Amino acid sequence: MSQPSILVTGASGHLGRRVVDLLLAKGAENIIATTRKPEALGDLAAKGVDVRRADFEDEASLESALAGVERALLVSTDALDKPGRRTSQHLAAVRAMVKAGVKYVLYTSLPNAANTTVTIAVDHAKTEEAIVASGLDYTILRNNLYADYFPYSLAPAVASGKLVDAKGEGAVAWITREDCAQAAAGALLAAKAGDRIAVDVTGPEPVTSAQLAKLLGELVGREIVHVSVTPEAMLEQFLASGMPRGIAEAMASFDGAIAKGDLSNVTDAVSRYAGRPPTSVNTFLAQHAATLKAAAK
User: Which Pfam families does the UniProt record give (predicted)?
Assistant: First the structure.
């Protein structure tokens, strides 16, 4: 029996590219990778991947790229420069999937997208609504926040001994990008007709900032304390660092949502789709110990 044709959008990005690599490693055939610049994925083409051009600002290109596709992974775009732009891109992709005859869509979303106060969550909520209304079979993968940024985002805390944020006593079920990619690849291969699945993709436990500060301090060999401030103070700190206002507001809104518990849910999605437990925060920190310890010098 022939394998289904599987398309991955954003294959030039970190998550999309890793999913394609994992599908190849798992022996999947009929893999299609899309990007705005196909020449950037020549190495995948050499491995037998069908590399196609797709531009989320050009719906006709999306429909053309989706021709003959049975399953598609829609990786959420990073078009956050203008309110509504990312929503428009995603909805164009969903319409193109319907027109092209795609049977199954997987989408990378955010936990509690419909109810959270995170400013950029509206893009995910509207995309989820469009997918549910499309008639396509689907799996919505609500990925929690990446721990991958820790080596950089935690460097100031290591240097100063203070982890400053507006998360309060809220916890995050931090996950690695690798675990998200493993779950997405597994979900693509496990998809079956009639699926209507929405699942949080999370790390193994919720971790508060106080707990994170303690783990970090033990790793680098110095005391690090959590200092809780207001979301307004956090926004001012982000702006003072030179961060664009839209991004700063989004970052501050994440802290507020975390304080309310919006990102603390834990599921077995990684174990279910990847066949192994997700990486813990402690393990991830240990893997990046050298970088984090360097920030203390």
Answer: NmrA
Residue at 196 is within a domain: yes
Helices (H), the chain: 14-25, 42-46, 59-65, 85-100, 121-134, 150-153, 155-160, 177-190, 209-220, 231-240, 245-259, 269-274, 281-287, 289-294
- CATH code for the domain in which residue 185 is found: 3.40.50.720
According to DSSP, residue 224 is labeled -
> Band of the pLDDT at 80, cuts 50, 70, 90?
confident
Residue count of the chain: 297
**Is residue 81 predicted with pLDDT exceeding 90?**
no
**Is the distance from CB of 201 to CB of 277 less than 8 angstroms?**
no
Structural domain for 63, as ranges: 6-143+177-201+265-278
How far is it, in rounded angstroms, from Cα 201 to Cα 204?
A: 10
Q: Is residue 75 part of a domain?
A: yes
Q: So what's the pLDDT on residue 1?
A: 54
Q: What is the pLDDT of residue 53?
A: 98
Task: Count CB-CB contacts under 10 A for residue 89.
Answer: 20
| Percent of the chain whose predicted confidence (pLDDT) is above 90 | 96
